[in-house]
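Something for you to look into today, if you have time. I want to see for myself how the chain folds. Leave the record below and I will have a look.
***
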Amino acid sequence: MRQASLGQVYKGRLKETGELVAVKVQRPFVLETVTIDLFIIRNLGLVLKRFPQVALDVVGLVDEWAARFFEELDYVNEGENGTLFAEMMREDLPQVVVPRTYPEYTSRKVLTTGWVDGEKLSQSTEDDVGSLVNVGVICYLKQLLDTGFFHADPHPGNMIRTPDGKLCILDFGLVTKLTDDQKYGMIEAIAHLIHRDYDAIVKDFVKLGFIPEGVNLDPILPVLAKVFDQALEGGGAKNINFQELAADLAQITFDYPFKIPPYFALIIRAIGVLEGIALVGDPEFAIVDEAYPYIAQRLLTDESPRLRSALRYTIYGKTGVFDAERFIDVMQAFENFISAAKSGGGEDMKGNMAELGAIGFQPSTSLVPAFPMAISQPENPIKARAALSFLLSDRGDFFREFILDEIVKAIDAVSREQLLQIASSFGVRNPVPVFGMVPVRSGALLPTITEEDRVILNNVEKVVKFLSAGTANPTANGDVNVVSLVQELLPVLPSITSKILPDVLSRLSSRVFARVIRESFL
């Protein structure tokens, strides 16, 4: 049924059950022939090591590839890889399927799996191909950045669309395993790339093994910056063509102490193939754009200190100042991830994401009084957008704590702005005489709005409009219908306030007290 350089695939039927199976049989003397070839190439690599101008690590590449190759020749190992992969995807992405392995009919040179009917994804003309490509992207991102168990041979023949509209992945002989440092390093590098932080990217490349420790980074930085600037033209990081970027990075290896690590060479090949399949159906496809929703989900939900630091950078940048646009960008990507995960037949990459589409009531045992449920509740409550639901959910605890200072600053700025508006409505425009007898600076007792406050108020407006979009019906002039929004959130406010209200009040009082002291006596 199928021929390859290492073996042939036959279609058969089990005598006991009558089930159709695929039987892969290894060609004779493959192991001996390839071992000799690898020995010769590796010795050539040892010779090339004597020439410093040759930056390509031939020996390292051969060692990495040879290790994977010998594993690929062990069909027992391949069958076990397929079984493990299926278990990893079953709960999170049920639309991804893997043929069942029959270990009782498998040996080192013969592999027996279930037969799967279908057509190559790259050749299918069905309407759901685009969504299946997205499922494939999520599947490979999960392998690359989550499980670390990476199917490194996703050529078009190994990705099948089944008659029932699922994505079947074949051939688990070539698998590479990634460490936590490598997974986190790639997420950090993508976050820095999106924000064009080239200084940080160079340091990421050191961590990932592209640049040796102790090398002077100054000469490499402008070269990498030029490569990334070219790649970012025409739409930013989210429109990068990965294959072209990889080719440009490979060119640097000839002139600078920069090399592509052997493990990453397999990743480049795999992602390049996946990108090529996607570009056939969608010429506008960009791998970074497709990856960002998954990365946003990891940043928002992963408890790793490195990823929490990356989340802070993503929203606050190098300046350490909260950026509403970055916040909205991350949350929009997170919502896109939820949609993509559900289109893949799964509720969520972690199992609980389906509940983030709507706010539900959870009884609170806190001392905060519960709001009356029967007062003016909308007859048909609108589902809150996923970003708001996440922030109000238990899984959003860390992120709420993360932005607690911004919540306090926002409450402080908004309350002082409201006080100024109230004073103005009563005609109190110059209240200094009122406080003339008070032995402190008069400005300390008056609400004022600084330039920093104006930035905070602007951020509040952007974030509130984003989070409330599609939640509360807008007013006639397009503003947020605050009454409707509050009514919709009433069921969850008690449990949320019980978690954050004490901290908010404590930090708010400290902030106000510090400002009064500063403006009174300093």
